[in-house]
Amino acid sequence: MTPFKNICPAPILAPMNPHPPLAHRRILLIIAGSIAAYKSLDLIRRLREAGADVRCILTRGGAQFITPLSVAALSENHVYTDLFSLTDEQEMGHIRLARDCDLVLVAPASANLMARFAHGLADDLAATVLLATDKPVLLAPAMNPVMWQNQATQENLATLIRRGVKIITPESGDMACGETGAGRLPEIAEIVTRVIDFFTAHKPLTGKTALVTSGPTHEPLDPVRFLGNRSSGKQGHALAAELAKAGASVTLVSGPVSEAPPAGVSVISVETADQMLNACLTTLPADIAICAAAVADFRPEAATATKIKKNGDAALHLTLVPNPDILATLARHPQRPGLLIGFAAETNNHLENAHRKLAAKGCDWLLLNDVSGGKVFGKDTNRLTLFRQTPTGTSQTDIPPQSKIDLARHIVAAIIKEYATHDHPA
Ligand code: CTP
User: Fold this and answer.
1) Cα–Cα distance between 60 and 44 in angstroms, integer?
2) Is residue 308 part of a domain?
3) How far is the CA of 134 from the centre of ligand 1 (A)?
4) Residue where a domain stops, chosen among 184, 201, 218
5) Domain harbouring 193, CATH code
6) Dist. CA 32–CA 358, nearest whole Å
7) Model confidence pLDDT, tens digit, residues 161-196
8) How many domains does the chain have?
9) CB-based pocket (< 6 A), ligand 1
10) 350-367: pLDDT as tens digits
11) Which of 29, 85, 122, 151 is most buried per CB count within 10 Å?
12) Cα(292) to centroid of ligand 1, in Å?
């Protein structure tokens, strides 16, 4: 794989829409060898205008029509062009490249690439990625009309459709090669619409309700002071956003944070643990609940009506009383959420504490978070370990360090998989 680094310092496209339809969607665009490849430059622009993050693979054939540099400039990303580059493999192996996206879009898809895909060949990066991906694939074929009509191409097409590949059917008309017939790449606007439609339709959690708690709680001491913690709400908000994108109807109960409310999520803003619990209870029944909030375990016994004054050098003694445990309350509730997920913020004895918490809280999954040394609260990245209650015990999966948004994608993908294999009646 040959990388072409960003050559364009400033973003070319600044999406104007505050909620562009493809926001946070990661598209891996494979550009194959067809004369229509020149149109993929415009496609990259339009996908990015719609909010998508676009990473490209340019096949050897595609590179006969457009240059990697123009693809790099428009996508503002590496462009991958062949399979065996050690540097690139170290940066992003071909398996990760195949999976680190929400959709693989092949536009234009040549007859050759379709044939190799249909036959499971892995003789270049594009074909290898198509074989290795576990993500949905959308193909926009473009080729000479006789090649398109050829029985070999049509049989390859039928094979791919049977395997679940989605197709943007080529249009009829005058072709760049001088012939007339079916095989022309549809207008770029049409391809972008099909991509947006794909994400609208591809919502495996449609019909599910989800509750997410996020952020800290603030426990008032007097009219101007509170007890709180350093939680930013980034992880909880990212989880709510991903669940909504997967089609769930999401209520986010959030403590005071500066994170923007995620698109398509209904937000209940609270301050204290008591308020958070009450808000959560109003959302039941829920299919899925994720308690990502850093709830204060204690609150001052009574908040004073007026500001606490200092009294010379005298110490101030506060009496703190326990707050309700929201996660444990949800676990014991008659309307217990079908899939209940908690976090464990630990600074020491991580594994032991996580096992103990999973059992004590009564949740189904627990995400262990090492919060020692200030490496999680307020930061954009994290690493987690997922513990799951299974009929035979507890399973443990390490999720490598990555952005909180990517972690949220990972967790929601695990939830989708869980629902595909098990019932979790609310
Ligand atoms: N939690 C909750 N209500 C509380 C305290 C915690 O819902 N009053 C939830 C958190 O949202 C998280 C899980 O319980 O999902 C574990 O929180 P954590 O802070 O790790 O543990 P605590 O229960 O507070 O226990 P400790 O402070 O002793 O580690």
Assistant:
1) 18
2) no
3) 35
4) 201
5) 3.40.50.1950
6) 49
7) 999 999 999 999 887 778 888 999 999 999 999 999
8) 2
9) 213, 273, 291, 293, 295, 297, 323, 325-327, 342-345, 357, 361
10) 999 999 999 999 999 999
11) 29
12) 9
